[in-house]
Amino acid sequence: MGLPLNVKKTDCMAISKKSSNPKCNLVSKGEQIKEVTKFKYLGYLITSDGRCTSEISKRIAMAKDKFQKMKPILANRNTGMTTKIRVIKTYVWSVLLYASECWTINKEIEEKKTISNKDVVYQKNDEDIMDRKSQMNWF
Length: 139
Hints:
Layout: E1 11-12, E2 27-28, E3 31-32, E4 34-35, E5 38-41, E6 44-47, H1 53-75, H2 81-96, H3 107-120, E7 123-124, E8 127-128, H4 133-136
Parallel strand pairs: 1-4
Antiparallel strand pairs: 2-3, 5-6, 7-8
């Protein structure tokens, strides 16, 4: 009874902070389940070392690209500040923060976050559109 397991479509992965990852020896119906070191789940890359630096770098790049696409709206003098903030929160932050609840944050990632915040601030006529640091924090 129950849901049958398709061994050909099933992968296993052991996640560990240690330099040598433990082996994942799972057998189902006499067949060994394939062990992997990384896989994509719902668009998020999960690695066996538990780090997410490549995923965060990818998200920062995607958010910067989305920001560049929104520049005409953000540079428009007729667009109000509240609208510009809503555009950034809706189109840029949503891309940046997708699956961020799964991120393992360390000092290296905090530095990337700070650099990304500085990159996202758009300058126009020597004035920052968004100069309040609290508006640019991720968390």
